[in-house]
Amino acid sequence: MSVRELVVLGTASQVPTRHRNHNGYVLLWDGEGLLFDPGEGTQRQMLRAGVAAHDLNRICVTHFHGDHSLGLAGVIQRINLDRVPHRVTAHYPASGQRFFERLRYATAYRETVKLVQEPVAGTGAVLADSGTFLLEARRLSHPVESYGYRLTEPDGRRMLPERLAAHGISGPDVGRLQREGAVGGVTLDEVSEVRRGQRFAFVMDTRLCEGVHALAEGCDMLVIESTFLDEDEALATEHGHLTAGQAGRVAAEAGVRHLVLTHFSQRYDDPVVFERQARAAGFDGELTVARDLMRVPLPKRR
């Protein structure tokens, strides 16, 4: 059975707290696992969350600040220690190539797994087309080069039983119609409708910019930083971050179905305020204020 859910490993920003580990997120998508921004302690958080190295197919790093990348060394070595049987692909800003290399070879270990490096540069790019999703990256606005990531499932078709029955199509002819596009003069369009593919976006350290809006557009789930509260918006802009209200407004304007707020500054103790400010900004969909080790399923298809 296919599983599509977000496993939250850590929700802190620059400084971890007693209750928040450094960043780390795993998106499980139909048998593939994408690890986003493995901060310090990610390997242990994976163990606590029940995510194995074998579950990982891709590693996606938004940028090379420590809270988003210092866990790379341990994760890469664990992938090799466990002899993961498939290749693992790493995406990260090309401008941080030297940082990736240093983390990959931070200490001595035996390489047993093919780790493919596919950095991203420029304004962004399509990184992969796995058949079940298209993976893209878009440049964000942060003091160091940063990219957000977006997965888009191809649109499919939803067969409509009442229309099939009206045209007398049943049994093997249904499959034939799906494969060939027409049976006995009846076209696929006449007995089905478009089933919109699911969309997921991961947006970390950034100010408001074109990339944020492009990544969020029409998402079923948007995982987005809300490092600061609205009263500290000037501080957020100075350091290249978003506030809870800004994140909520982006989600509302983009038609996001499920908003996941994360990457919280250690200066705030009450997570309820983040939700309150995102709601006040106009977001009325499903909203989760992320906690370490929680699992958040993607919304059911429309």
Characterization of the model:
This protein is 27% helix and 26% strand. It contains 11 helices and 18 strands. The protein has helices at residues 42-49, 66-69, 72-81, 97-104, 161-166, 172-180, 188-191, 210-216, 233-239, 244-254, 272-280, and strands at 4-10, 24-29, 32-36, 58-60, 88-91, 115-117, 124-129, 134-139, 147-152, 156-159, 182-183, 186-187, 192-195, 199-203, 221-225, 258-262, 286-289, 295-297. The strands form 4 sheets. A 7-stranded mixed sheet has the order 6-5-4-3-2-1-18. A 7-stranded mixed sheet has the order 7-8-9-14-15-16-17. A two-stranded antiparallel ribbon has the order 10-13. α10 packs across α11. The longest helix is centred in the C-terminal third of the chain and has 11 residues, at 244-254.
List the topology elements.
Blueprint: E1 4-10, E2 24-29, E3 32-36, H1 42-49, E4 58-60, H2 66-69, H3 72-81, E5 88-91, H4 97-104, E6 115-117, E7 124-129, E8 134-139, E9 147-152, E10 156-159, H5 161-166, H6 172-180, E11 182-183, E12 186-187, H7 188-191, E13 192-195, E14 199-203, H8 210-216, E15 221-225, H9 233-239, H10 244-254, E16 258-262, H11 272-280, E17 286-289, E18 295-297
Parallel strand pairs: 3-4, 4-5, 5-6, 14-15, 15-16, 16-17
Antiparallel strand pairs: 1-2, 1-18, 2-3, 7-8, 8-9, 9-14, 10-13, 11-12
Helix pairs in contact: 10-11
How would you summarize what this structure contains?
27% of the residues lie in helices and 26% in strands.
Order of neighbouring strands in the sheet with most strands: 6-5-4-3-2-1-18
Radius of gyration: 21 Å
Task: Count helical runs.
Answer: 11
Helix content: 25-40%
Ranges with pLDDT <50 over ≥5 residues? Answer: none
Output the helix-strand order. Answer: EEEHEHHEHEEEEEHHEEHEEHEHHEHEE
Q: What is the percentage of strand-forming residues?
A: 25-35%
Question: Mean pLDDT, rounded to whole units?
Answer: 95
Largest sheet: 7 strands, mixed
Structural class label: alpha/beta
DSSP summary, beta strand count: 18
- Please give the alpha-carbon distance between the first and last residues: 19 Å
What's the shape?
Answer: globular
